[in-house]
Amino acid sequence: MAREQSSYESFIKGLWRENPVFVQVLGMCPMLAVTNTALNSLVMGLATLFVLMGSSFLVASLKHLIPKQVRISLYIIIIATFVTIADYTILALLPAVHKELGAFIPLIVANCMILGRQEAFASRHGVRMAVVDAAGMSAGFMFALLALGGVRELLGNGSLFGVDLFGPGFEPWVIMILPPGGFITLGLLLLLFNWIAARKRAFLAEVAATEREML
Amino acid sequence: MSIGNGVKEPGSARLALSLAFAGFISGLAIIAIYEATLPTITANKAEELRQAVFRVLPGVTRIRKFESTPEGLKENPEARGEEVVYGGYDPQGALVGYAINSAGPGFQDTIRVLYGYAPAERRVLGMWILESRETPGLGDKIYKDAEFVANFEDLAIEPQIVAVKKGTRSAPNEIDAITGATISSKAVARIINEGHQRWKGRLPAPDGQPGIEEAEQ
Predict the structure, then answer these.
(1) Does residue A90 carry a pLDDT above 70?
(2) Is A174 within 8 Å of B34 when comparing Cβ atoms?
(3) Which of A40, A129, B110, B204 has the largest CB neighbor count within 10 A?
């Protein structure tokens, strides 16, 4: 991170090039556990967004006051506080969704993506960049959750966001809702993501080769 | 954070203090959000329970809260916990039935069920899941699948409720289990059966049911 990136670049890298799930393979626990429906994925994504942006903002603001020997413990205290706030807020405002997500909201504390961003980014950058980076990473995380949740709900229940799409003739693939479906879908999505990245690399190499020939 | 620029190491006291301070601030924030959301959360839960009582006892317009005591049922609007039943009354003031709480282990965790029971006919009138962590997409159909919930509208409770393979329901005390969630379906049946065993001796005889007049003080 020697080079100062623009805010746009910083946001996009979290969404795509350094996507926390598909590239860094972080945050697998909520990724596999709550993505059986698109709605659960969305709420989980929003809760993670709130926690990551809040924590990154505080860590970047207080970075000069945090002694480096106890920084990890302090990051965890900050993250856990935001998670508790998110937990109670969802319980008060969306009790039905809270019922669905259950233990996985408190478990956001243990999402290594969040602690990872504090250590790797927020503690070394300004407040604005830290917040942009957090927004990008959360957006990338939510994109991945929705991709997985959408596929699993569509195949496993024949619906998307609870709206029935295929009618009564569709026999749901029950396995997609269950844990193995999460692993299978994640594996296939990682395959797709890496295939696109490999194609892009090959294309860029080809363009570079053509340019050299032209010279 | 200053990394490797030769700054003197901070003493243990400073480290401990910064952690204690962070813990204190965090504690304050958590207490604040807890206090701020508690009234809404409590109100949500009470409202959900009230709605559930009306759902499991069709045709009911007024409810009374009873507590089971060694001398029989006693009205107690403040009662909590296991020993509480709700009596539901129709507009004429006649008892429709009781809404009874029962809980037991499901496939994942404890399931809490509220069911409506008509003591004269010995039938279940309706069922509502108050709390469950059953597998999303499968076990959660015990409350999401309207067809399954409809099984419990007018269901014979004696000798006991039996969950059978979907589509093979034939006797008045049988329910169609959910395909792919047999354990959860059987758990609901078992929880209601256990609730019935616990409560059938404690409810007053059909001719001695508490009327609505007593409720209007």
Answers:
(1) yes
(2) no
(3) A40
Q: Name residue B75's beta-bridge partners.
A: B66
Decide if B137 and A71 are in contact by the 8 Å CB cutoff.
no
Residues of chain A in contact with residue B51, where contact means CB-CB under 8 angstroms, are none
Say if CB A122 and CB A133 are below 8 A apart. Answer: yes
Return the residue in B8, B18, B47, B184 with the most chain A beta carbons within 10 A, the one to mutate for interface testing.
B18
Q: Which of A66, A77, A91 sits opposite B1 (nearest CB)?
A: A66
- Please check whether residue B76 is in contact with residue B67, taking contact to mean a CB–CB distance below 8 angstroms: yes
How much is the mean pLDDT over chain B? 85
CB contact under 8 A, A178 and B137: yes
What is the secondary structure of A49-78 as a DSSP string? HHHHHHHHHHHHHTTTTS-GGGHHHHHHHH
B217 pLDDT more than 50? no
How many angstroms away from the CA of B189 is the closest CA of chain A? 22
Per residue in B39-67, pLDDT tens?
999 899 888 888 899 999 998 888 888 88
Structure tokens at B114: 């509220």
Per-residue pLDDT tens over the stretch B171-216: 899 999 998 889 999 999 999 999 999 888 888 766 666 665 544 4
Chain centroid to Cα B182, Å, comes to: 20
Per-residue model confidence as pLDDT tens digits over A103-145: 788 888 988 889 999 998 888 889 999 999 999 999 999 999 9
Residues B151, B111: contact at Cβ < 8 Å? no
Q: Are B111 and B134 in contact (CB under 8 A)?
A: yes
Q: How close A207 gets to chain B, by Cα (Å)?
A: 42
Residue of chain A minimizing CA distance to B180:
A174
Q: How far apart are CA B55 and CA B61, in angstroms?
A: 11
- Are B18 and A81 an interchain contact pair (Cβ–Cβ within 8 Å)? no
Please report the pLDDT score of residue B193 as a whole number. Answer: 94
CA distance B52 to B125: 12
Nearest-angstrom CA–CA distance, A68 and B5: 12
Q: Is the ipTM of this complex over 0.95?
A: no
Residue B217 Cα distances to A214, B62, B75, B172, B213, angstroms: 98, 14, 12, 40, 8
**How crowded is the C-beta side of A44, counted as CA atoms within 13 Å?**
36
SS3 letters for B87-138?
Answer: EEECCCCCEEEEEEEEEEECCCCEEEEEEEEECCCCEEEEEEEEECCCCCCC
Identify the band that residue B30 occupies on the pLDDT scale cut at 50, 70 and 90.
very high
